[in-house]
Amino acid sequence: SSILLLVFVLLTQFTNAADDNPLVLWYRHAADEWTKALPIGNGRLGGMVFGGVDMERLQLNEESMWTGHPVERANQNAYEALQKARALLFQGRYVEAEKVVAQDFMGRRLERGEHTYQTLGDLNLFFDHVRVHDYRRELDLDRAVVTVSYTFNRTRFTREYFSSPVDQVIVVRLSADKPGALDFRIRLSRPADAAIETGQDKIRMFGQLKNGGVAFEAQLLVLPQNGSRSRDKDEIIVSGADAVVMLLAAATGYRGGDPASMVQETLAAAKEKSYNALLTDHIAEHQRLFKRVELNLGRTAAVDFPTDERLLAMKSGAVDPQLLALYYQFGRYLLISSSRPGGLPANLQGLWEGTLRPPWNADYHININIQMNYWPAELTGLSECHLPFFDFLDALRPRGRITAKETYGCGGFVAHHTTDAWHFTDPIGKPVYGMWPMGAAWSTQHLWEHYLFTGDELFLRQKAWPIMKEAAEFMVDFLIRDPNSGYLVSGPSSSPENRFRTKDGQIANLNMGTTMDTEIIYDLFSNCIDAADVLDRDRRFAKKLTELRDQLPPLKIGSDGRLMEWQEEFEEPEPGHRHISHLFALHPGRQITLRHTPELAAAARKTIDYRLAHGGGHTGWSRAWIINFFARLQDGERAYENLLALLRKSTLPNLFDTHPPFQIDGNFGGVSGMTEMLLQSHAGEIHLLPALPKDWANGKVNGLRARGGFIVDMRWRNSRIVNAVVTSELGGSCRLRTPNAVIVTNADVNPATGDNPNPFYKLQPPPRMEMLNPDAVQPLTAKEGFCIDFETVAGTKYKVVEKE
Ligand code: FUC
Q1: The sheet that has 24-27: what strands, in order across it?
Q2: How far is the CA of 433 from the centre of ligand 1 (A)?
Q3: Total-model pTM
Q4: Cβ–ligand 1 contact at 577 (below 6 Å)
């Protein structure tokens, strides 16, 4: 049927008229695998709906279902080993240095599963339904409700599922279009570590997770309308009901307190509300966030087909812009559903995991993954969803300080490539991934970005600054003068998970002053210098950071024109490596831009091309990062090509990003990449349609955010802005760059002056640069477009229209 769909889609005329594109993922079948089930979540409490006819499986999650507890992991010999390793690295004795680090520096890596996130369990419903017809399973992104419906025995059965952020329960409602038609059995289960108690109207599941993990409690309340309810061993049996509402609450002792009484209270409150009240409140709260952004890239006849068939058709070449818009909104839906204020941040799988042993423990990797999770937060109007990341960073500080002091003899706080719900900050495992003390520093970029988008000075002062400053304090102590070059360098460190070949042919990972480290430190110091300026405090510290920043090594362009990943040119054993760490300065950093550093931009481009030519972009998140890179390079076609590859090669039937089986970062990186194609604001101006591909020549988007507190709505035709509205929330100057000339109807417009007009989106000073072979670099020029400056007043909308 996907071939048919493909033919149909290719023949159908592309229209852009309607705004009623359905934001629904839907399927004609139940999910036979977890990666086909549909996610619901309220940030804390999640579920995956399979929609089976004779057996429903609603797999459940609670964000703090973690085994383990804080344990000591540090290597007691670390400080001495650090000095030895540095001396060896400065002599180019990389392999020896790595041996020292592996042996005497690295802390304890636990066995996979020892400390891990886990499923909460399953809610199963058993029906005597067979040979049903008109089956449909859907996730309505706009209402955040999953619905399963089918006809059996001339009766239409419907099940609805949602996880309410308001009432903190998962709600399931079953109904039929004939009275008394509902007969089914209900069971709650968990693969391990759980006791089950079944009563007349309630099932309790409780226990404690392994290795001193959390105590947990889940309770399901069954509320039938008419009919009867009885108990059989571990099951509740409902017979002859017109409709049934089930409420599921769950809690753990992660933050203290008794999970059983928390759950009890939640359920007692929720059951006082009618189903309609629960639903209405849920939808209202979801839409408050979700509806902030609307995206219309046009529609084809494909919109009428099931999502999995559309994805298949796209794999064979169908053009289906609405599927891309759906993918985009699905990503926003996932962030809203997995990261709400007060909770834990979205982990490697957001919130959703079906087993006791997820890949990488479904933890919080901080060497790209958690950052990518939050790239779309500010851009797409989900600033509040960013907050759990900040609380988490804050919570890393106490242990991060100990690691800084005991492992490095430094002040401030530090964290490495990964951490978990127990906030460990030690370097663990093998040097190739574990020896990388930049996780906290990179993460603090998000604090500063939150301020740039919101202008929230109180947040900057009270929350962001102390964390940023402490991350910088570590780096101040950690930097060491390279006796060979005289620059201040970090190390020992790696370029995340990548390796190089030494001059004598050995494979090594560790080095001093890797490019990414330098870029992250540059970014951190720059952000701190600007923050101290805004807050008018810590002037001396800021001055010191400025002096140190000037002594960081320059970014280097190698003899073949690529940006160098290490200070020396090395051969790479894996030239298509998934991490493209040294392009941090292009994205998510702001140090390399097309307009201000065209040589470095050209080198960045060569770097991506080289990676791609060697099989790069093979993981979803890596592909997603590449979309962001090409968007920043203003290359819409290449960004688009990689977006299509993300959907074709790395997207599961339920639109989850793959990393066998699933990792959510690619979903989020995809959303930020698509946004960066439409709007950018990192380079001192608001750039509309900076990387628009031909296939998106006509479209419309509302509600995108720009640094400096601006909201942008815009409509374009033939790749030209037709009209736009720029809402200024904070006032201040605004510079708009557009593909065609525009006028602002209700403001005085000045010709662009060349300075950065808005202090909120200040540019970082251009990096120093060194070129090993100037002939190998053809500077990339930016598409200039048109530029205007105007002053704005807070709370005012500015109307922008095409200049005839
Ligand atoms: C990074 C990546 C892996 C994986 C892991 C969770 O270390 O290199 O591909 O995504 O995080």
Answers
A1: 24-27, 133-140, 145-152, 155-163, 170-176, 243-252, 215-225, 202-208, 195-198
A2: 9
A3: 0.97
A4: no
